Amino acid sequence: MAVKALISFGLIVLGLVVLTTWRSARNEAQAEAAFPPEGQILDVNGIAVHAVVMGEGPDVVLIHGSSGNTRDMTFALAPILAKSYRVIVFDRPGLGYSESFNPDGETIIEQADILQRAAAQLGAEKPIVAGQSYGGSVSLAWAVTRPQNISALVLIAPAAIPWETPLDGFNRLASTSAGNAFVLPLISSFVPDWYVVQALDKVFAPQTAPEGYVEHFGPGLTTRRGSMHANAKQRANLLDEVTRLQPRYGEISIPTEIIHGTADDTVGLEWHSERLIEQIPGAELIELPGIGHMPQVVAAPEVAAAIDRAAQRAGLR
Question: Who has greater pLDDT, 172 or 195?
């Protein structure tokens, strides 16, 4: 009887594994069919990088935040900027349709390097670089390590100053091999879109995701197994990377604009931007009253105005 019970249990587990694997693959294929690449796939030293290019004028590179993709920037901000600039929006490595290339998680310096090379491949040798949240960290790494390849820096709710809060439990687990093998397939298979939408509203708080954003952004792209694992590994490493980068912020000599919502509970204004402005010579800070963590969506004209100011200070306007 014990042997039969063990065999039955094994068959049930096997069946669940097969079902989960099938559902994950199906859901991911459906998400990619519904939300295909918006732009072109570049080959940058053998690494695939997804880039969306629109508009004409001085070059502006937009870098999205954690768990994002190009669609976060192309919903509101990029179309405004495309009236006056050539806008290049990238998927960061491992997210959207850009390839992951570091099994331990791409560092912000590695991401800055590959995105700068991708921009140069598109003819943008010295663009304005604007990044939101985690993308702000990558933008800071770009400014510090590749100063000859950037004309101005715009930081949108940037994660810039070493923090004291621990990494959340989900990303701690999702960054591990065990989490990738056993937990992420369950999320990809069984977590409904409405739950992801609720999570988005928490990121937007005190605002909510505006009408049409979810349909444009494509939550299913975020819940693919590879994207969740790549994002979690990057998040797990970020604190140490920012800690090492911070002492070099004083080397940034290009025009720098920082824009941050006063109601941001994800990356706090007081902890990050109000300290950061003292560390970058000549940096300017614009505070957005009542705005949360997603100004590039809910306050896109104000963010575009910050990019205009950076362009003017850099002599591009």
Answer: 172
Residue 54 has pLDDT above 90, yes or no: yes
One-character DSSP codes across 165-184: SPPPHHHHHHTSHHIIIIIH
Q: Give the homologous superfamily in CATH for domain 33-313.
A: Alpha/Beta hydrolase fold, catalytic domain (3.40.50.1820)
38 near 62, Cβ under 8 Å? no
pLDDT at residue 9 is higher than 70: no
Phi, psi torsion values for 154, nearest 5 degrees: -125, 120
Instruction: Output b/e per residue, 173-196; b: 16+ Cβ within 10 A.
Output: bbbbeebbeebbbebbbeeeeeeb
Asked whether the beta carbons of 139 and 145 are under 8 A apart, the reply is no
pLDDT tens profile 274-288: 999 999 999 999 999
Listed in sequence order, the residues at least 6 apart from 50 whose beta carbon sits closer than 8 Å to its beta carbon are 37, 38, 39, 40, 41, 42, 70, 90, 91, 96, 97, 98
- At 96, the pLDDT band (50, 70, 90 cuts) reads very high
* The pair of three-digit structure tokens given for residue 65, joined into one six-digit string: 């935040």
Contact 257, 309 (CB under 8 A): yes
In terms of Cβ atoms closer than 10 Å to its own Cβ (0-12, 13-18, 19+), residue 95 is: buried
Euclidean distance between CA atoms 207 and 71, whole angstroms: 19
Q: Map residue 52 onto helix, strand or coil.
A: strand
Question: Which tens digit of pLDDT belongs to each residue from 106-128?
Answer: 999 999 999 999 999 999 999 99
Give the mean pLDDT of the chain. 94
d(CA 67, CA 232): 9
CA distance 112 to 114: 6
Residue 214 has a CB neighbour count (10 Å cut-off) of 17
DSSP letter, residue 206: T
How many residues comprise the chain?
Answer: 317
Domain ranges for the chain, please list them: 33-313
Q: How far apart are CA 279 and CA 118, in angstroms?
A: 29
